[in-house]
Write a structure and sequence with these properties.
Length: 141
């Protein structure tokens, strides 16, 4: 990472991140994102379970935050494609996510993320993304 990026400023600058109330901390493993449970995020009231769109969006944001953290760039990357695997219902609990950059090129980054609730070893959702990096991006700078 070249320049530390204020991830909280990125979140504060996004109305959708503020709506989701995403939290972020950085530890030795990288970015840890948190999605506090709220009634507005429940998609299935019978289970109850969080809406899949909220969980997938949260994972995409975790990928973007990890990319900003590792590259030191706040220039927004754009999704080329995203694949989501819903492994089990995301219950009405706080949800956490970590993302990992699998490949960082000059134009495209491949970033994976997983979300879990009470047990990190039991993910509720996985996401793989191909992100278009901003023009002029140089890996390692």
């Amino acid at each position: 990472m070249s320049n530390p990026v204020d991830l909280n400023a990125i979140i504060a600058g996004s109305p959708f991140c503020r709506f989701l109330n995403i939290g972020v901390t950085v530890d030795e493993r990288g970015v840890l994102a948190s999605l506090p449970v709220r009634d507005q995020l429940v998609g299935n009231v019978m289970l109850p379970a969080l809406h899949g769109g909220a969980v997938a969006s949260f994972l995409e944001i975790a990928c973007l935050l990890q990319l900003a953290h590792e590259t030191g760039s706040t220039a927004p990357a754009r999704a080329i494609d995203i694949s989501v695997e819903y492994l089990r219902p995301a219950r009405r609990e706080n949800t956490f996510a970590r993302a990992h950059i699998r490949r960082l090129g000059r134009r495209v980054a491949v970033v994976h993320a997983e979300a879990w609730q009470s047990d990190e070893a039991k993910p509720v959702c996985l996401l793989q993304s191909h992100l278009r990096l901003p023009s002029g991006f140089v890996p390692g700078e």
